[in-house]
Automatic annotation (TrEMBL), chain B:
PROSITE patterns: ABC_TM1. It comes from Nesterenkonia salmonea. This is ABC transporter permease. One of its GO terms (cellular component) is plasma membrane. InterPro entries: MetI-like (IPR000515), MetI-like_sf (IPR035906). GO terms for biological process: alkanesulfonate transmembrane transport. It comes from the Bacteria. The chain crosses the membrane at residues 37-57, 77-99, 106-125, 164-184, 204-222, 256-275. Belongs to the binding-protein-dependent transport system permease family. The keyword Transmembrane applies. Residues 1-30 are annotated as: Disordered. It is found in: Cell membrane. Residues 99-279 form the ABC transmembrane type-1 domain.
Length: 270, 289
């Protein structure tokens, strides 16, 4: 049923995330029930940056919501280190599509709030504050820590959201079109910042986007989804660029243009 | 790095005053001053015209002095303010104590309504099942004039003071309840996804996320409720008696003392305005999403 090829080198280590035969659908007024995501199987290795790309409405965001535990699966299971994901977990950090900062808190308070909600946390307020400041500094926002979200630009707001997700130090980071709401210039700037951050903070990343350049710049592997409903993964592409990467080398690579036109082609022809 | 939006040029004090736009600024300032003079002049003109019409309208009537003339009303105003703090037996009470009684009833009934309506609204806003079950009651009881509850209150509570508070409670309950439910529904659903993904417990997600995010809606409801309560208290007090602005107005009518009624109307309006303004101030303090 699945058209994807198996992942490149089948390593001995078990996958950190295993998407095992999941499907998902929603009640539909006309047909009674509409399946959105066809049976999907993916193994994600530790430290991998994987991107799910596809046209609007293909169900890629639904897959990410299921990975986050915010949406249940109809069939199959998603396993995090062998355990099925049935509810949201702090092991799964989310960077939301639009900034989701609480407007009555400063940037720092937003990060501290995320840290202090940890059940059974024994850290002092001071420790949490230091940890929040460390991650705000990683996204170059130390100077804006005391500002309210409404005082920050769209790009800065999203950087606070990224800092918050990293500060949780989750096993897996889920990025739901993290830069989708930004203008082209800010977007490019943040792509580079995200690239640097992801290479620094060794984690497993799963991103959803419809930006081909973003996918090629950041990922180790790109899963291309066909158009929905009942969408499935039609290509599983290994991105050949080494790490650490920089945007210029990647963009000058001949394979970059080849992959780019291939991806654009497969996104529009379905 | 400055993060302030560059829209504050008009109010920036020192930097904007120098340089070329000085003349423009002076012109804008002069324009504002002219507008202020016009507004004040217009207000005074209307006010004088109103007094003149009032005077002419009432001076011609000779019906035993029932129509309040401006002059009689003015005299009565001074008299009432002079005796504002009078406390001389149950039938001779200064206007201040009437006002105080009304404000107390309103704030008490309004406060109890808020204490019940806000938690209930949070529950109904988050739980579709609860909401669907209780919505018919809300929809049928909401359009009932709070005064319709008054006789029932007298029968059940057997206390006129409690009944007045009960009527205010019924007047304030629905606006707060409905605004809170609506406020919860307007909360960005991603805030709740965030709380879930942080494994926040019910307490944290209710008090640290849901409640602050609903606050703008709640305060709007409080404002409507307080205005309604102040409208209703006068009518309620006309019936339950005792002390209070409504009772005062009705009493003065029975004594055919119409200038007092005009004074009372102005005081009721002024205090209603102040109550509304104080909640509007609260509204400005609440950060919006």
């Amino acid at each position: 049923m699945t058209a994807q090829t198996m992942p490149q080198e089948t390593t001995a280590a078990p996958p950190v995330v295993k998407i095992d035969g999941i499907t998902k659908g929603f009640p539909n007024r006309k047909k009674g029930f509409q399946r959105i995501v066809a049976e999907t199987n993916v193994d994600i290795q530790e430290g991998e940056f994987i991107t799910i790309i596809g046209p609007s409405g293909c169900g890629k965001s639904t897959i990410l919501k299921m990975l986050a535990g915010l949406e249940s699966v109809d069939e199959g299971a998603i396993l995090l280190e062998g355990e099925p994901i049935t509810a949201p977990s702090r092991q799964l950090g989310i960077v939301f599509q639009q900034h989701v900062l609480l407007p009555w808190m400063s940037a720092r308070q937003n990060v501290v709030f995320a840290l202090e909600t940890e059940p059974g946390s024994t850290s002092t307020k001071e420790e949490l504050r230091e940890r929040a400041d460390k991650y705000l500094d990683l996204v170059n926002l130390s100077h804006a820590a005391d500002q309210r979200p409404s005082q920050l630009s769209g790009g800065m707001q999203q950087r606070v959201g990224i800092a918050r997700a990293f500060a949780l130090e989750p096993k897996v980071m889920l990025l739901d079109e993290p830069l989708g709401a930004l203008d082209a210039l800010t977007r490019h700037e943040l792509q580079l910042q995200l690239l640097r951050l992801c290479e620094q903070q060794k984690r497993t990343f799963i991103m959803v986007t419809h930006d081909v350049d973003e996918a090629l710049l950041l990922s180790d592997r790109i899963l291309v989804m066909g158009s929905g409903p009942n969408a499935e993964i039609i290509h599983d592409i290994t991105v050949p660029f080494g790490r650490p990467r920089d945007a210029e080398t990647v963009e000058q690579d001949a394979k970059y243009h080849e992959l780019r036109s291939f991806l654009l082609g497969s996104l529009t022809s379905h | 790095m400055s993060t302030q939006a560059p829209e504050t040029t008009a109010s920036a004090p020192s930097s904007a005053e120098q340089g070329a736009p000085e003349a423009l600024q002076r012109r804008a300032k002069a324009q504002r001053a002219r507008d202020r003079v016009r507004t004040t002049g217009l207000f005074l003109a209307f006010f004088l015209a109103f007094i003149a019409v009032w005077h002419l309208g009432t001076a011609g009537l000779d019906d035993g002095g029932l129509a309040p003339t401006p002059a009689a009303t003015w005299d009565r105003l001074l008299e009432m303010l002079g005796d504002a703090f009078l406390l001389d037996g149950p039938n001779n009470v200064g206007i201040f104590y009437h006002l105080l009684a009304s404000i107390q009833r309103v704030l008490l009934g309004f406060g109890i309504a808020a204490l019940i309506a806000i938690p209930l609204g949070l529950l109904l806003g988050t739980s579709q099942v609860f909401n669907d079950g209780l919505d018919p009651f809300i929809q049928v009881l909401k359009p009932v004039s709070p005064l319709a509850w008054l006789p029932l209150g007298l029968a059940l509570l057997r206390d006129s003071q409690m009944t007045a508070i009960f009527v205010i409670f019924m007047a304030a309950l629905w606006p707060i309840l409905i605004a809170t439910i609506d406020g919860v529904r307007r909360v960005n659903p991603l805030y709740l996804d965030l709380a879930k993904s942080l494994e926040a417990d019910t307490r944290t997600s209710t008090f640290k996320v849901l409640l602050p995010a609903t606050l703008p809606g709640i305060v709007t409801g409080l404002r409507t409720a307080l205005s309604t309560a102040w409208l209703v208290i006068v009518a309620a007090e006309m019936i339950v008696g005792g002390r209070g602005m409504g009772h005062f107005v009705w009493n003065e009518w029975n004594a055919l003392n119409t200038p007092s009624i005009v004074v009372a109307i102005v005081i009721i309006g002024g205090v209603g305005f102040i109550l509304d303004r104080s909640i509007a101030q609260l509204q400005r303090l609440v950060p919006k999403g």
